[in-house]
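Sample 1 of the test manifest.
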Amino acid sequence: MAQRGAPMVEKSKEEPKAIVDSVIEGRKLDSYAEHQTKDMHVCWICEEICYKKKPIRQVGKRWICIDCLRQLKEALDQLPQWEEELQLKGHLEQQLDEGLGLDDKKKK
Ligand SMILES: [Zn+2]
């Protein structure tokens, strides 16, 4: 290593610096690529690949992008109303079953 490095420094002082620079650039690119990969997540719901450009959040073990989270929030906001509707529907069906179902059963 010393034999190869020494003559190059004597020949030109620019060359090793250029090599070092290119190595640093290469490492920068490597770490950048690595960084990008770390930031890359696939949305669990829409399966979109999200880099830094699109916000994505970890929810439990899954990653969910901002768009899907917004949709989830909307759905959650509507949940109480939905539950009310379901309950009402359940009551109506129960009343119908009680009112009509029993008569049907008696006839059959
Ligand atoms: Zn998504």
